[in-house]
Amino acid sequence: MPLPYSKKVLELFRDPKNLGRMEDATVQAVAGNPACGDMITFYLKINEAGVIERATFESYGCAANIATSSILTEMIKGKSLEEAWKISWKMVAEEVGGLPSIKFHCGILAVGALRRAIRLYYKRKGIAPAWMPEGLTFEEKQALEEEELAEVLSKRVGGGGSDAQSP
Amino acid sequence: MRADVEELIKAHAGIEREVYLDSENSSRVPDEVVRAMLPYFNESSYGNPTITHKPGWEAYEAIMDSAGKIARSIGAEPEEITFTPGETEANNLALMGSLWKRKGGKIVISEIEPLSVTNVCQMLEERGFKVAKVPVDGEGFVDLEKLKEEVDGETRLVSIAAVSNEIGTIEPIREALEIVKDRSPGAIFHTDASDAYGRIPFDVGELGVDMATLSSYKISGPRGIGALYVREGVEVGRILEGQIGTQRLWPGVENTPLIVGFAAASRMAFDGFEANVSHMRRLRDRLIDGILSGVEDTRLNGPRGDKRAPDNVNISFLRCEGEALTIELSLKGVYVSSGSACTRRILQPSHVLTAIGRRFEEAHGSILMKVTRHHTDEDMDYVLEAIPKAVERLRAIYGSMGDG
Known about the structure:
The complex is a heterodimer of chains A (167) and B (404). Chain A is of the alpha+beta class and 167 residues long. Chain A has helices spanning 7-14, 63-76, 81-85, 89-95, 104-125, 138-156; strands at 27-33, 38-46, 52-60. Chain A has a three-stranded antiparallel beta sheet with strand order 1-2-3. In chain A, β1 (27-33) and β2 (38-46) form a beta hairpin. In chain A, α2 (63-76) packs across α5. The N and C termini of chain A lie far apart (33 Å). By secondary structure, chain B is of the alpha/beta class. Chain B folds into two domains: 2-21 and 273-398, Aspartate Aminotransferase, domain 1, CATH 3.90.1150.10; 32-270, 3-Layer(aba) Sandwich (Aspartate Aminotransferase, domain 2). Chain B is built from 15 helices and 15 strands. In chain B, the strands form four sheets. Chain B has a seven-stranded mixed beta sheet with strand order 2-8-7-6-5-3-4, sandwiched between helices. In chain B, 52% of the residues are buried. At the A-B interface, α1, β2, β3, α2 and α6 of A face α1, β9, α12, β13 and α14 of B.
């Protein structure tokens, strides 16, 4: 299937903004796994006022995965957690200049990972903000389903394999 | 979308060298082959070979000469060669055309056949055929004991590729054929020889296969042309209908320039065959050894040495996703393909790599490269410099994930 990535996706793929682990992160969250072929970790530094001061990411995946993760860290910088929560995968896709349809899931996974981090932050604080829905949102559900699907499929084919050919 | 692609291409400006290692998916046709084809577009032979005029007779002559050359290169007769638009069509013709009149029965294939075999089998299964897939070992060799168990009196067709297009395993076709003929004398034995042709000795007379698929672009010929060898006496029907020209099993107007180009590429592959093969094998091993020793956490997919096709390099890079790697390498002028295909939800690993026991994450980071007789040592030097850098950059994005 042809994959005509946008200029912005290629730009972020070549030179990702806010890349790398954050040692003093207030919270971090992972979505996806290597079996999905898609995995993102977000690191957020959140101040007392509930504003995201810094955001970084690490990722395993295609160019769209890297670009959407990177753009999202840019989009949430300086935003309140409530504002960050309201960013949808479609806004992310738009921000990177559009995504090929089979890459929509990359934007979805990025948003899913971010919301996981935000939920975790409030859970640790023992707070449930009124604006945060109790049930999982579309992006969070999709991230979960993707993880489960990869697990089921990778178990079905066996996996493991011999180490006979390792150099 | 069109504008996006233009930008992607522009991003490659200034690359030092281009090394095309993706003859798995399409070919870069050498000048000599292009030159051989050109006169057939407008100087002569541009007629339809079924019509009684000079350009038609010229086309007829060119097609017959080409069929003769292709036939001789595999030890067949010209009448046993049908030109098709490619490997996919030849495999479809072989399977559907030989089972067309059958009401049912069993088809036996291996677990690592190309999609133009497995997907056709899936369709035939829906039409009432029983399909059995014989497993392979960790290097991709078909389990002959399992083959013996699966082939029975109901078996109508067995299809096993002579060489795996993905991992280069040279299958024991002769042994497989003996088992099949012993267990089910009426069964037809087809082999997709697209990755064997021009790279390992392949003689249909010596092997005794009933049908064999050949592809032009896999030997640096033009795309859009391939052939099916059907041994004299093997009953195969058409799967398309229309005007029948020189190709009894494939209707429609023959593409004379492509047929001539296919024959020209074939001649180049077989002129100095031994030298061509040892050249490819040496470059292949330079790539394999250079990558495995130069990049950590890599695994070779498929066997080493003489039982591997001389052109095939397939390596998994852990913590490095395949599609990202193809793009990163493309930006350096190194063109390769990856074993996993993106679906709407998750990355779908290659069925060949999962069949040899690779985990999903190993399959996702796999890169397939094919060397040709046209590649040079300088090309390999360039690739061996580009790959470690590309992998290193992508692994930096992966970073510390998985360390908790």
